[in-house]
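Lab notebook: predicted structure, single chain.

Context: the supervisor wants predicted structures on file for every construct in the current expression panel, including those that have not yet been purified. This is the next one on the list. No modifications to the sequence; it matches the entry in the shared construct table.
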Amino acid sequence: MPWAAPLPAAARAFALLSGLGLLALLVLAAWLTPDERGLGTHRQLGFPQCTALKLLGIRCPTCGMTTSWAHTVRGQLGRAAAANCGGTLLALSAIAMVPWLLGSGARGQWLISPPSGRVALTLMLTVLGVTLLDWAIRLIR
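Prediction complete. Output recorded below exactly as produced.
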């Protein structure tokens, strides 16, 4: 079993740092107040308004991502999906990955199974596809 082998120090450090990075993003999302409009929560961090929204009057594919994370960490999945479906999938993925990465790094062995490029690619393409489909539906409305 490849996940039973001890992790090299670099892999262990990478797992711990990745888990801590995702945890930091989730804590930040919990600290933010979700914007009731479904987008704009990122403005609390000092970022400007979305350029596409400002110049063209339409939401870009990532509009509502921060808001969806802020709703997801509060368990408000319906509101999260209404803000941005792709962002909701990303936040849920982060929630699932934090204990796996931190546990694997702390234990020095992969928990359950080692990372898979195929799984990572599938997740990435799924999030991208859902984000673009969500955006297209918003444009049609």
